[in-house]
Structures are given as structure tokens and as C-alpha cells.
Amino acid sequence: MTKRKLPDSAAEHKAHADVRAGVGVLTLSSSRTLASDRSGDVIQELLESHGHEVTVRKVLPDDRRRLRAAVRALVRNGKIQAIITTGGTGLAPSDVTIEAVRDMLDKELPGFNALFMFLSYPQVKSAAILSRALAGTIGGKILFCLPGSPRACQLAMESIILPELGHALSMIGSR
Fold first, then answer.
1. Are strands 134-138 and 141-146 parallel, antiparallel or unpaired?
2. Alpha-carbon distance 24 to 43, whole Å?
3. Which pLDDT band, with edges at 50, 70 and 90, does 3 fall under?
4. Which domain holds residue 162?
5. Which CATH number do you get for residue 113?
């Protein structure tokens, strides 16, 4: 009996690496504008340098109701396959991103936060526990919630999101 070669999961991941997505980027901040939103700039620059298109980009105040409405609108937008939020993930009373979107998710990806904290530790040491991140699926789209610092956004984008975005979208049938 001949042994059948099992598929190489790394190769399967790479096969989806060229998937291009339309992405909605939402920044949660009561003090930033589009002109001063460095975290949103980092996310947009990295997405576009990898062939993705930022179809919608907005800055919203730290407001649970407005965030949920914006996420619902992005889920309904046929040009968007992924949603990335930045900001509102800390411990301040005004930081409501995680609480606002968690119960909207169809499926949560708990490994995203775990891996993000693991990767953050060498940069920020024990302060990594003070930053929250979240990922999951919602209405056939993938959603990532990142902290508001440009450095954290760059880390998450380069180390986790960009390498896995195409594969995640293929798994949920969004592309």
C-alpha cells in the first residue's frame, strides 16, 4: 500500500495569501480626526501595500451605539470582506469596543488575543495585559479589534492579520 501525501497546511495557507479584500477601517477616539489618525493610517498603508483596498474609513467617538451601527453597516456593505477597528480596547470607562462588538460575533477567535499579547510582551513587557484585542466572524465577514496605538496596529497587522487574512476569508467563504 502506498502512502498518500497529506496536504501541507503551510502550503494551504500560502495558497490563500494572494486573496485581495475590501476592508472597512473604524477608529474609535473622542480626540482624533481622519487627519490625526496615525493608527488608521498604519492599518490603511499596510493593507494597501499588500494589495487590499480600504473601501470605508471612519473615525467615531467612543460610543457603543455608534460603533455597533457602523459595524452593522459594514457587514451589509457588499464591497467589504473584513473590518478592522482600532482604539477603545483599554481599561478606561470610555473604552467600549470589545464590549460593543463581542456579542455581535458569530464566532470568536480567542487565539488572536492570546497571540497578540504574546507578541506584544517583548515590546511592552507586563503592560501587554492592559491591552485587549478581539477577532471573530460576523455576517460572513472577519472582524479584528486592535488597540489604538500605531505600534500595536503595526504589530498585529504584520504578524497576524496580513499573513492570515486570505486564509481566514477562504474559510468563511467571503472570497
1. antiparallel
2. 10
3. low
4. 20-172
5. 3.40.980.10
